[in-house]
Amino acid sequence: MSAYILRRLLYAIPILIGVNLLTFVLFFVVNSPDDMARMHLGEKRVTAEAVAAWKADHGYDRPMLYNAEAEGLGRLTETIFFDKSVRLFVFDFGSSDDGRDIGRDIAQRMWPSLAIALPVLLVGLAFNISYALFIVFFRATYVDLASVVLLVTMMSISGLFYIIGGQFLLGKLFQLVPISGYDSGLAGLKFLVLPVIVGVIGGIGAGTRWYRTLFLEEIGRDYVRTARAKGLGERLVLFRHVLRNALIPILTGVVVVLPLLFMGSLITESFFAIPGLGSYTIDAISNQDFAIVRSMVFLGAVLYILGLILTDISYTLADPRVRLQ
Amino acid sequence: MPMVDKAARWRVLWRGIRVVSVMSLLIAGLVACDDRPWNDPYPRDTATSNTLYSSFGERPKHLDPARSYTVNENTFIAQIYEPPLQYHFLHRPYQLIPLALAEMPRVRFYDAAGEPLPDDAPAAAIARSEYELHVRPGTRYQPHPALARDAEGAPRYLDLEPGALAGIDTLGDFAEHGTRELVAADFAYQIKRLAAPWLHSPINGVMGEHILGFAALGERLEAADPEQARARVALLRDTEFEGVEVLDRYRLRITLEGKYPQFSYWLAMPFFAPMPWEAEAFYAQPGMRERNLMLDWYPVGTGPYMLTENNPNLRMVLERNPNFHGERYPDSGMPGDRAAGILDDAGAPLPFIDRVVYSLEKESIPRWNKFLQGYYDFSGISSDAFDQAVRVDASGRPMLTETLEARGVELMTAVEPTIFFMGFNMLDPVIGGEGQRARLLRRAISIAVDMEEFISIFLNGRGVVAQSPLPPGIFGHRTGEAGINPFVYRWEAGRAVRRSLDEARTLMVQAGYPGGRDRDTGRALTLNYEAVATGPDDRARLNWLRKQFAKLGIELVIRSTDYNRFQDKIRNGTGQIFFWGWNADYPDPENFLFLLYGPNGRVEHQGENSVNYTNPEFDRLFERMRNLEDGPERQALIDRMVEIARTDAPWIWGFHPRAFSLYHRWYHNAYPNQMANNTLKYRRIDPALRAELRRAWNQPVLWPLGAAAAVLLALLLPAWWLVRRRERSRAL
Lengths: 325, 732
Description:
heterodimer; A: mainly alpha; MetI-like fold; 2 domains; B: alpha+beta; Dipeptide-binding Protein, domain 1; Dipeptide-binding Protein, domain 3; eight-stranded mixed sheet; five-stranded antiparallel sheet; 22 helices; 17% strand; globular; transport (chain A); cell membrane (chain A); membrane (chain A); transmembrane helix (chain A); Peptide/nickel transport system permease protein (chain A)
């Protein structure tokens, strides 16, 4: 397994270079270094000299990808792309364009993201699996039909609706929880209630339908028929056999998102004023802060690759027949 | 066996019921004991504290006074830093008074030979102006580790050993905080910082045009090693330049080239606030930047407040500066102020409020709802919430809705010193230029684009139609019949009435575009509008705009692009028609009329004249006007300049926005002052009343919890019964 993991890690390097290159190209198609300078220097009384000085100060006065004036390897290394990318591979994210240390900001902001994302994942998982098993228990009945209609309806509603609706009902109308905000420690619990409820409800439609499909696929298999033929009750069949055998696709879905929980949610964090990494990314995009954007994309790619490796490993734990070679 | 199973099951069920009952009683008991609202986002012990609550939507980029230039940054730093001057809180027209100074600057003029000139000397004769600033003795900085000293009097934290910052994350983690007296050299140091190329001060360029030797100083400072932050501080301290001279501990002289009366206004901005060199030296030490400990994030000032918590991702907290020199609430204002209660606090020591908490609130809906719940003390009104907040009476006067009136909320409106206009690129061969044909076309369009309708539809009436570049409240602005733009309006029955479309069509005929067709070529006239359109609201606005041009038979093509490309078009002069705005730096007509001054053209000179308008007579008059004191001569020049601009019509004059602000009844001394940013010190609140009203407004509604539990039970019990029945049923 160690060799497999090592190989996967090595495969990650060209992927990360590709992701970084793609981010670089996409960002600079929309924003030029001049645009970035003007964004940071402000709208009023900005001179060409000030723009040039800002670019020189922040290392954006070099060629983008290829420096024709340099010699040898310098043609590639004396460029904005190389200068801004190479340190990422040792997880040195550097400073944002306004001078703040990105690594420190990320370390601070990933916890609020996690504080929302983890309960949403766990509570959502428990609820969705339970509900899906319940539907499967009553498959091909009116309970099944009504549930599917309900789930499709819930899937069709925008996540924003749940957020605004939740804030209106629980925060404004019933006045049970703060509408928005965040705090650390125990004082922060009251701020988590609403975003977690909204996150769980918002995920019921898609999540439960997905698990229902998985369970229905399993429930028609021979081993289930055998279990029933042995006289096992339906509950035991579902929990002991169907659920266990459906674990692999469930694990695939869950483990792969585990590392990404740190990355936060753009809209939820914005509406609930959660100082997480989701709002950090969206702020960076609107402020044209390339240093943060590339760091967050890079980190997201690393975490995604990590999630995929963890998924592979979890297969072997869930199903002894799977071997990583 | 089955009997045993059944008994065990009942025991489990009974235990569960007991647990649920005890927990319910516990929760009910807690609710009964604590009448504090459940939705209160603030800590329990702050309910009746003298704390003001507000929000910010976008984290400030800079808190360094040399760099900060936006309103959301000034919200914070204007309470912390004290520039030499400030605007009187109540007097109108806006009046400058000393803030960090003991008295107003003494201004002296000299000719090219260095001989003194009288105050009324013509601007052309003045070779240099000297501003002598007398700093108020006894002013002390806020407590700060950079100013801490050890027993021998040496700086405590200015020469830290490597590793000394272990465990330090914020300024509060330093054990000792010190202070020292404000001296004239701190102003000199800050002015040199404005010239430092590494700080990218936005006013570097404009000050380079006026302060003697400022531009040369910038060039000298370029030699500083970018890797040696502490060496830069030393260089700034040691470098002398002719534009600024420290006369003694409390006196400073600033020398300007020629005459520049607007310089006094710059002295009221945080750019000129004093900076202790120790602060920069402190932050320049290794390890500080890696901990985000920077002057750009942790200000050091002499003002009424200091920043004690700086987490721009969540919350920023200002607290009363214990070393504040003291200031009194003004004892004079405008007629009617005393009757309105604005002078009730006359002579009282400032500031009134101990602590101010700004919470990050990016979205308007939660911000508005928290204001309604009393968790923010004041609020603006977003478009979404306008109908909930304001209704317009029969005479067009804005009033609060009954709901807000019942809560005791108060509405305050004020026209902002800002203009939004539709600009015609004067370099464009069709719509621009000095030719009569293009001029008539621009005037026709000015009539057709109905700005009253625009304000009504898209701004909920929150704006005043502009008749010239000068907003109300700025010297030179005229009201009544004398103030209307005669090319677009006529004066009828005591009010301005927009000229008819027939008149606009006649102008089109005179311009050679009858019915919107070019008389020479017979082709339909097509114009391009440069837009930065992103949402559905923009689409409605653009459709409206198309219809305005269509009234004259003109086809308006919307060229929508992203903001960066839009800016490029304006910079390169490739746009044709666009929307633009300007917010005053200071309340002087020069700050608006310079938007039409030829040598300020955007394409040729990178200036703020975005339409690249040029008129030799206008430019000549501007050069005379900008150096005059307010008075009849200046008014006459402004009248003529406005007339020229109206005749040439490089802009559709657009509108001046009207700010609507809401205040809860416990919030006092709300008074519109559009120029001053340091007004927090004048505000007063009644925390006891606020706590009482918050409690009354935010009692939790508990029945939905019971209803939700009942619904859940109603769903689960039949389901449980169904499951059981199904499991026990026999196969057929």
